[in-house]
Amino acid sequence: MNAPFVPPVCAEPPVKRGQREVFCGLTSIVWLHRKIQDAFFLVVGSRTCAHLIQSAAGVMIFAEPRFATAILEERDLAGLADIDEELDRAASRLLERRQDIKLLFLVASCPSEVIKIDLVRAAARLDKRLGANVRVLSYSGSGVETTFTQGEDSCLAALVPELPAEPASAAPSLLVVGALADVVEDQFARLFAELGLADVRFLPMRRAGAMPAVGPNTFVLLAQPFLAETARVLETRGAKRLDAPFPLGGEGTTLWLKAAADAFGVSSRRFEDVTAPGRARAETAVARHAPKLAGKRIFFFPDSQLEIPLARFLSRELGAQPIEVAQPYIHRGLLAEELALLPEGLRLSEGPDVETQLDRCRAERPDLTVCGLGLANPLEAEGLTTKWSIELLFTPIQGYEQAGDLAELFARPLVRRSRLEV
Questions:
Q1: DSSP per residue over 15-40, as a string?
Q2: In this model, does residue 408 exceed pLDDT 90?
Q3: What is the pLDDT of residue 11?
Q4: Which CATH architecture has domain 173-284?
């Protein structure tokens, strides 16, 4: 076994944690409801929960999104209403109106968890009552203890027990795990096909009836670095996770594809022939933004769980200088390949106290600060240039074709600042 990786520098001991300045896991519904096209996400929460999701989604007035909030009223909070009856009534009205729904998620929020509403039992009861027409599952999107990308992890982990079993005699298959924009998924599917991988599936799937099979012959390739629980439950089903950096930028995408190619015995010559055009396009696209980012000092607050892969991309492909990289938590098993590619000398911290990190950021005066919305405006008022980390979850950034777009997302705030200073 390889010796565990020791991070370059840890700004604070992992046990020294402070308050988190991040969105809750309900935010992940914004991209998940677009991905699973016949699913519906029913949040059991407060009006604040409803306003949060609606604001994050920016849903047009003409759109009919596949999410809603079952509002907890005073009678519910006081225990005067029968929650089971209320949920049954809300689910029935929803399914009568939206007969296209094939998969219904009951999503727990901070309020529903605080008053101990058992949505696991409620989902099982509804699933039994509704029969084969609609599957009902539950997961927690609460922000009490988690960051916002963990909502996707909880959702996919809830799906894993429902996935059909792969036959024992099945040929090896690849399961790509993590919500990707449809255009990105299609690009990866074409690349895998050109590499000769015949059986490639994606989780989450686009339709509830197309749940991918999983078993001992399944190789799992994570597309997102925050899916620790999903990876764990897939491994309990016998699947084998492939270690790889994540597909951000040309280098990350190449190493990610290489992990799958090596597992399936793809020759080096064929891998080179298939990936060379994409690598060249990514390199050209990224190079257009390199002059704006080369040598720029970048400071990451913990928010999206993408911070470490992004720091690797910025330093190795754009010549930027990450000076502190913080994540809400660091899963060293999933991030070992990424950690090994980080430049020496940066500060790496896990779940830091936001107040002490703010002090360090103010002292450093970085060229660009990557953080959540709650910190961005105050830091901008102090003269710092910021990048909203949540935008990186709503924008297609994986793969060769999106490498230039990813670089531009970081270059844009610097360009804006330079124009304002003229």
A1: T------S--GGGGHHHHHHHSTTEE
A2: yes
A3: 41
A4: 3-Layer(aba) Sandwich (3.40)
